[in-house]
Amino acid sequence: MDLDRRSFLLDAGRLIVLSASASLAWEALLEGRPETAPNYTMTDHWWGMVIDIEKCIGCGNCVRACKTENNVPLEPYTFRTWVERYVVELDDLEHPKVESPNGGYDGFKPIETDTARIKTFFVPKLCNHCAASPCVQVCPVGATFESPDGVVLVDTDYCLGCRYCVQACPYGCRYIDPRTHTVDKCSLCYHRITKGLTTACCETCPTGARQLGDLKNPKDPIHEFLRTHKIQVLKPQMATHSKMYYNGLDGSVR
Amino acid sequence: MSGDQNPYLHVFRMAGLFAVGIGAFLVLRALYVPGDFGTFGHYRPAALEANRAVAAKFAGRASCEACHTEIVEARKDSKHGGVGCEACHGPLARHASGDDQAPKPVKPDAARLCLTCHRADASKPRTFKQIVPANHYPGEVCTSCHNAHKPQLS
User: Fold this and answer.
1) Does A109 lie in the same domain as A14?
2) Phi/psi at A62 (nearest 5 deg)?
3) pTM, to two decimals
4) A86-100 confidence digits (pLDDT tens)
5) Do both A141 and A63 map to the same domain?
6) Residues of chain B positioned with their CB less than 8 A from the CB of A85
7) Nearest-CA residue of chain A relative to B80?
C-alpha cells in the first residue's frame, strides 16, 4: 500500500473534520431541531404553520414585523400577511362583515357597541404555501415555484409581472410590488427558516397564535397540535393542499 | 405553365422557413435559459439561494437571551414569558450581531405599547386580559404598577 506520511495525515485530518460535522448534525437531529444542523438539506423539511384563531388578539404585530423584515412597501394594498376582523350577526351567519383597515397594520378600533347579537374574531392571513398551488400552475415562465421543502417562492429576477398568479391565488395573497412591477408574496421568511430562526410573524406574535412547524420533523410539536385540535384549512374545496392549519376557524370565514 | 418549375416548391419554401424559425428558437433558448433550469422543477435553482440571501432584521429570541440573562431570570414564571423579546422591543438583529454602528435599542413607550394588546375589544378572545383605559386607573402609566417583564401583581 503506497500510503506515505503526507497523504495519511491529510486523510486522517479529513476524517476528523467530517466526523465532527456529522456528529454536530446528528446531535441536532437527536434533539429534535434539525434546522440548526450545520448543513440545511431542503428535502429534510416540509414547512407549514398552525394559526390559532382562539389566541389572535388583532394587535397587528405580525403585519408590522413582516413589512419590516421583508421590506414590503407601506402601501395599504401590499401585504405579505394581514389580519381580518370578522363580525357575524347571529341571525345571518352566512354573511359576515369583514374589515381589515390597512391590513391591521395600525391595529383595530375596539368594538364598543352592544355585542349581544354578534360574534366577532380576528383571522390572520398569509400565503397558504399550498402543495398544489394554483399560482405555480399558471406561471408561464417558472418564476414562482414550490421549493423542495414546501415553500412557495418567487423568482423576482425571472418574473415578467404578467399578474396571472395574482388572479390565480384563491386566497388573495399576492400583490405587484409598485417599485419593481414584479409579483411578491409571503416567502415564509425563507431566509430565516433555513437558518434555524422562526418567521418574523411567529417571532413577534405575543400570544403564540402562529406557530411555524416542520412537518417532516417527527419531534416538532406541530404534530401533537394537529392531532389534538379541530383543524381546518381555508377553502378546502379548492384542493390546494394548503399548509396553513387553522384552529377554531369559524364556518363563515372565506 | 412554366413546365420546369417544381410543383412542390412552395412546400419546400415553407419547410425552410419553419426550419429557420425553429433553429432560431433553439439557439435563443440555449442562450437565455440558464443551464440548471429545471434541476428541481420548472424554475431556476438560483432563485432558492436568492430567497435565502435576504438579511434578517429580527434576531430571534434565542440570541437576545444568550446575553440578557438577567431578563431571562426576571421573566421566570411571568405571564409574559411566552412573548418574544422583539414583539415589544422591535427588530434588533444589528444590535444582536454586535455591530458598533447599530442604533441603540429604545425603551418602548408603555403608555402606547401595552394598549396595543390589552385595550378591551369584543373581537379579542375572552380569556385574554383586557382593560378599558377609561376605567382602569386613567392617567396612570401601566408600568407604575406592572412590571412589563413580569406583569402579574402579587
Assistant:
1) no
2) -65, -40
3) 0.85
4) 999 999 999 999 999
5) yes
6) 123
7) A206
